[in-house]
Amino acid sequence: MSADASLSTRGPVLVVGAGLVGTSIGLSLATRGVEVLLSDSSPTTLALAREVGAGRALTPQDVPTLVVVSAPPDVCARLVIEQLAAYPGAIVTDVASVKASIARSVLGAVEDATRYVGSHPMAGSERSGPTAARADLFAGRPWVIAATERSAPAAVRAVRHLAVDLGATPVEMDATGHDDAVALVSHMPQIVASLVAARLRDAPEAALALSGQGLRDVTRIAASDPQLWAAILGANATHVRAVLAAVRGDLDVVLAGFDRVVDGGDHGGLAKVAQAIEAGNAGVARIPGKHGGAHREYAVVAVLVPDAPGELARLLADVGRAGVNLEDLRMEHVAGHPVGLAELSVLPKAREQLESALDAAGWKVAG
Amino acid sequence: MSADASLSTRGPVLVVGAGLVGTSIGLSLATRGVEVLLSDSSPTTLALAREVGAGRALTPQDVPTLVVVSAPPDVCARLVIEQLAAYPGAIVTDVASVKASIARSVLGAVEDATRYVGSHPMAGSERSGPTAARADLFAGRPWVIAATERSAPAAVRAVRHLAVDLGATPVEMDATGHDDAVALVSHMPQIVASLVAARLRDAPEAALALSGQGLRDVTRIAASDPQLWAAILGANATHVRAVLAAVRGDLDVVLAGFDRVVDGGDHGGLAKVAQAIEAGNAGVARIPGKHGGAHREYAVVAVLVPDAPGELARLLADVGRAGVNLEDLRMEHVAGHPVGLAELSVLPKAREQLESALDAAGWKVAG
Question: Which CATH class for the A13-173 domain?
Answer without folding.
Answer: alpha beta
